[in-house]
User: Fold these one by one.
Assistant:
Number 1:
Amino acid sequence: MINEIDQQVELFQHQFTTVKSEIGKRIVGSEDIIEGILISLIAAGHTLLEGIPGLGKTKLVHTLSEVLQLEFSRIQFTPDLMPADIIGTNVVQENQQGEKSFEFQPGPIFGNMILADEINRATPKTQSALLEAMQEKSVSVGKRTHKLSLPFFVLATQNPLEMEGTYPLPEAQLDRFFFKLKVRYPSVDDLHKILDRTTQPEEPTVDRVLDGPQILAMRKTSRAIPISRSVQEYAIQLTLATHPGSPHAHNDVQQFIRYGASPRGAQALVLGGKIRALLNNRVHVSGEDIRAMVLPALRHRLLLNFEGEAEQIDPDTMLKKILDNTPEPS
Amino acid sequence: MALENHTANRAAVTRVLETIERRLRFDRLLRELIVGFSLSMAVPLVVVFWHLFSPIQTTTFWLITLCWLLGFCSFTLWRLSQKGSLTQAATSVDLRAKLKDELKSAHWFISESTSSPWVEAHLDRAARTADKLEIVELYPKQIPRNSLVAIGLFVLLIALNLVPTSWTRGWLEAKSPRSTETRESKTKTAENILEPSDSLNLEDDPALEKRATQLLNNMIEEVSGTDSMEQLEEIRKRLNTEETDLEAIEQSLEAMARAMEGVTQLDEVREALANKNFGEAAEQLRELAKHLEKNTTTSDDKKRLQEGLERAALEVREELEELSEALERSAEQLGKNNFKESKESLDEAASKLNESAQEQAEQNLKDAAKRQLQQLQEILNARREHASQAKRGGEQSSKEQAQGGAGQGQGTEQTTARQGGDHGEARQAGNGEQKQGNQPAQGDQGGMPFDGPTQLGSPTELEVTLRQEVILSQQEREIEFEREHEQLIEQPSRAADSEVEYRKIEPGRSYADPEALGYDSIPWSYRTLVKRYFETMGPRGQHD
């Protein structure tokens, strides 16, 4: 039995590494972003990518869709985009007898992997169309609920610079993202590689190395990892420390934070920690795994108050302070 | 087979954790005991330092030492009873060996009896990791750095007790350096006092000798002052009860000397008696007896001598009855020309005179001993009084300072002195300045060591004038306040108008500002003054 588990762990690591290396053929650098996206995918979560234009966010998602044998849909969010444009709508269909009836025409949300490009350009009404799909993995149109095929994975991108004509994501929407990953500007070496690869006549090709069932199997494996109570307690304390009213809260949290992370944040910490433990050839979750998940899992779950907004407080800074001030329970 | 493996894995992990826990407990105990010992060393060090500059009695020393030992032992037992948990051991080893919570998680799964294929896989891995652990390398035995401090403090303690000064001693002996000197002085004083007692033939009175010896021993062993005082008083009483009426004897012999006037042969005897030198008088009588034996005197001289001896015999009072009889017999035998018998009677009279001389000497020595004992009593009294007044002095000092600080007694001079035994204290206070100090009055012995018999002057007296302090009641204070108010405000206001040009100044706050009104910034004692001031000023706008 133990050997079987060891084999599962090895398989998990192999599949993960394979996907990552395939993506790496086309995407230079951003390894932490790739890893974060894959962890989010395996943990059945969704990812919000934030970065300035031109950093390869969309390219990354495209590459991922090519590597994974999944049905890919892209939705370009614009201010005039309507919910029906995403989830689909009932259209009148006429059969051979001339009878007319409404028939549901699925929207682009009906796929395995959805790229919601520049999600903050759509109105909150349209953004909210994703809520049910992201959480329940289903879409309700009229009186009918349509189940989405699994794995269902939303990758949204947004530009932090352009605030004109954008609609910040509502908290409920943000909370449904498993991770929020910040795409950094590449280094000089990475830029050299990017230029080398993208200015050649032919673009590097990638292979499909993972399909839906394999992803679901990986998900099942990762969730089987046991976690001790002390480590889980640590995840809870870190989550509670983001709440200004909590006794674990840092002074800055009490000053600048309006609301902290929801229990979804703690779930993200634990699930992400489990996957990271497997990637590190461990069958138990450590406090280090939890700490590594804090920034991507909680940064978009902190709601700054007026003072925090005025001071332009970076949630990452707050989370680092929380990490420094929250000891791991023994 | 799988079940056995699972059990073995759990046992292996637990065994390693227990080993680590024991090692951690030992290290913790060692560290805590060294720190506790270092901190507790402050107690004996303070005692030793204190003892160097201010002697500590043996009882006090042993009490402190006992408390210190009890405290340290209690701390040790308390820390020994504190056992660490295996979770702490697992956390520690995870940190040291960088195991990323592997053993901690394993211990939690074991303690919670959690079982699943994944848990067993984890325990299998943890058991293998635990087997590979080099506990000795992870937790090397090392002496904590704090031990150097503890050793240093202990060496300091030993060194302080080995300081080769004449005025200090080992702390185990815990004798007072100053009291050592005092003890020697006391011994010397006691010997001085009791030296005359040797010539008093204390051996004749074993009880008195025993008491004196006990007293001397007590003084050497530093028994309490009260016991010494009682014993001194007892000896002094006994000396008083055995007192010889030397004055009556002297008066009798002086009368005898006067009766010898006009007798040439008795001139030396008379002169010696007049000088109260009874021994010399006895010698002269023996000389006279030798002359009588030789029968070289004329009949007239013999007759005058006979008459002189008879007169002398008559003058001698009953205290010296035997002397009187001897002189009378001598005169009688001389009248019968029995010179030999007369000489024997004179020798007998001389012997009686010798006895009187000895009694005189004994009485003088007794008087000297009584004076010495009285001085010793006074010294002991003074020391006790000094000690009690020193204790009271601190309380009274703070009390007097408080009174001086309140400004009472301005413009007055007050001198108080207490005469509690030989201790005097004077204090002067005036114009807000207060001087205070203990000035030794005449005969003050407070704090002085015994350096032999102290020569005390004649007792002095200080005239003490105590003044009753006037404490005003609340009503009297108000009357006084009104009087001052009348002098300070009312009278000048009635005398002339103010020369200050009034201007309208808009206040920063309105009178109706409740916050300002509610703000308690005016001291309570000035409230009435401020209120009256504004009442005098009148309502707002009147002076605008």
Number 2:
Amino acid sequence: MEAPAPEPLPLEGVRVLELGGGIPAAFAARWLAGFGADVVRVEPEDDRLTPDEAVYLLPGKRRVHPAPSELLALARAADIIIEDGPPGALAARGLDPAALRAARPPLVIVSITPYGQDGPYAAFPATNITAFAMGGIMSLTGMHQREPLVTGGSQALYLGGLHAAGAAVTAFFGALVHGEGDWVDLSLQEIMAGMLELYGPRGAYEGAVSVRSGNHVRAVWGLYPCADGFAGVCALERQVPALFALLADPELDEPRFRDPLERPNHDDELQAKLYAWFGDRTKAELLELGARHRVPIGAVVTPRELLENASLSERGFFDTVETPAGTARIPGRPFLGLGWRPGQLAEPVPAAAVLAEWSPRP
Amino acid sequence: MKRLPLEGIRVADLTMMWAGPYATRILAEMGAEVIKVESPRAWDNLRTLIPLPGVEEPWNASYYFNDYNRDKKSLTLDLAHPLGRETFLQLVTHCDVVIENYRADVLDNLQLGYDVLREARPDIILVSMAGYGKTGPERDYVGFGPIIEQMSGLASLTGYGDDGVPIKTGISYGDPVAGTAAAAAVALALIRRRRTGRGAFIDLAQREVLSTLIGEAFVAASLRSETPVHRGNREPRAFAQGVYRCAGQDQWLAITLRTRDDWHRAAALLAVDPALPGDPTDHDVIDSRLTAALASRDPQEAFELLARADIPAGRVLDTVVIHDDPHLLARRFWVELPHPRMHPWKQPRTTWRLRQADPAPRRHAPLFGEHNDDILRGLLGLDDARIAQLRREGVIGDAPINPGVG
């Protein structure tokens, strides 16, 4: 496909105020900055980000330490405010969301909290792991014989940021079309409780608890040790014949494995065959076989390996950021097809410098 | 009544399984008219993945399918049939967005790539969300959510830490993450279209989106060549952190002790000895004392006891208990919608709570082909003879052909 002509960034000229300073607000605002918004981050009083998180989440933003009057002026001039403070934190800083929105209806405010703005737990403290637990995903993650396990990184917090980015641009589009923004109340718990795959609706409909299945939901949907690490397969019924063809084991032609209703009764036996098959092969061999035979096969790769990945390089996935410790390479645009601007880290600037440019919106 | 942001936007939805339908559920919740297109020969697998025993038309009675396809309309069209393709292109002229999560080569094989769609509708927004994108040497890889998790780097970060084994998240985690990003992409493309008049071709690789959720691991890898360390449920930034068994069937409580002060207050609340040896075994000592103290405690009581004292705690809510969580009930998060084939059950409300527009689920997922007539006659203006022809040639249908398990 021919490349489209150079184009303006989709959020060129859109003013975004980031408040709170945690991963949720910072990640959402990172996407908006990349797509062209003028993002001003109000620095929190204590460091909410590790140095590595700051390298990832702060490029392309202007950072300020505003006085209270300057903060109000920034909020009044912004098009989108994204914040991850506790409920009531905005109002406590003189930025009551309802009042700001009444003064300027197109304004979009997105708040990310562990439990939402109201309800009996609204004031409870939370961290990534407690939020992950309250969202239900943790009950499904880990080995059945062991304690539930939190997924790596800070997934509850990043999910909050991901949803905040989507909600912010959607509400902003609504404001462009209908003249009115909104105040979006995002709860980390609700975000996760609404993405429990089939297990959530199954619990609701059948009243049956789904248990942690470790690395094997079933034999053909699992993760196995291989010759140089770990690799997995996720075969739907229509892909099982191709997987069996790869294993080249005559026993797999027998009805106990072929028949999808019989197969679950012989899952241990099938798992043993897959352990043996995966164990003899490297990640590269397995990936190549999967692609060639249209079998969903993957391999557990590390960020270091991905930094050398040819597909990601060809697609221009990584941005580079200059840091005192050297050049960091970080995930860049989340998808292709819209203009994206990689950013660099910068020292804080006086809020007055921003306000000189941010004239009041009509 | 305030309008939803995407009111007036029409979406032709070719997505199946979970990632794509999760995206288009969000679009529907935000007010878009979403027309789900399935072939009588290739329907959304979710309809038949977990058939209810003994039910008639299981493809119309799946709670799994229903929860992620609410508020959409169903049109059947066999896109591999010339008349199906032609009818789809007629539909595209009435749409703002086409979205698909086929394997990377499928849409082009159907001769429905971006250039073709753009001829039908010059400002069309096409969102493709293949696992690895439309370009690059890995574009032909096949994958679902757990595989995306492995290939994004995330699985390498997760593990108990004592055995070196990476652990997958208990859901197909890559799917809803990619779906949310795709919904964001639609809004961004609509904003750009409003400003420039131009459509867009969004090439979203599900693996890349998931990698953006572990950005700091790439910083560590590129600056210091670090390989992820499995820490189980511990967190180096906290004084101590873990997950502890409580009374009941497989009930657990996650606790973060941010500081030594948190530990002292938690110890007092749970009546355990706060004194620590002051050496590297401190965390193990804390774990063993909390394990002993919580084993006979009710998880809800222990959760509230700690949280009310400003100590971060969270119940590991299982997939049944979560539907009775007092807070989610108070927030009216679970909603029950009538369904013609199933008894009511608690479904999640939209998580993008626009406080003024107040989006709420409106209607159950469509029955297979339920809106064929609405769309073909009402929207496209086809006459009876043409619709009869489409039916006769199997381009449209009221039921999947040869449905089995999976």
